[in-house]
């Protein structure tokens, strides 16, 4: 009888130890610890989890992410707003943005912010269409020169907002990585 009770205690003690090790190694956060407030939607709860994960990742690596080096969400939004002004005023590609409705313009702005924020390692999720889908057939197929004009609009906006050379190169590398999906002729 005593042996059975000892065995049961050892079993439970072992289980507790294994759980503690798993929580430490895999950083398994109990669901109640993810957000202390009751979130009305699953979407919000997912976002809190992602932000928590993002914060702990950058703390662990000790390296500032591109998102942080750019100055965070509002700084990225300012770069996108200046990019929009630059491309609207560009003689080669301005015409593509002229006829957009107010809401289409706001939608495009938000998608661009989300896209750049996510690419920079920030707590954002891009939910727009793929670059191929949203640009395919535009003006009979976008050219390399038109793409260059857009990229130049981004570069000028980064300069205007005082983004340092290393961060600027990284943002422009991201832009360049999309060329093959956007350019068709
Ligand atoms: C790296 C370069 C580019 C990036 C990152 C980019 C990004 C985007 C994004 C995120 C959207 C929204 C997607 C969606 O509606 O689901 C979009 C739409 C659009 N883009 Fe681009 N784009 C680029 C180049 C260009 C170029 C070169 C042009 C024109 C010359 C252009 C014109 C447009 C227009 C007019 C829309 C609105 C399409 C619509 O509402 O149906 N984009 N772009």
UniProtKB/TrEMBL annotation:
<keyword id="KW-0479">Metal-binding</keyword>
<protein>
    <submittedName>
        <fullName>Group 1 truncated hemoglobin</fullName>
    </submittedName>
</protein>
<keyword id="KW-0813">Transport</keyword>
<dbReference type="InterPro" id="IPR012292">
    <property type="entry name" value="Globin/Proto"/>
</dbReference>
<dbReference type="Pfam" id="PF01152">
    <property type="entry name" value="Bac_globin"/>
</dbReference>
<dbReference type="InterPro" id="IPR009050">
    <property type="entry name" value="Globin-like_sf"/>
</dbReference>
<keyword id="KW-0349">Heme</keyword>
<keyword id="KW-0408">Iron</keyword>
<dbReference type="InterPro" id="IPR001486">
    <property type="entry name" value="Hemoglobin_trunc"/>
</dbReference>
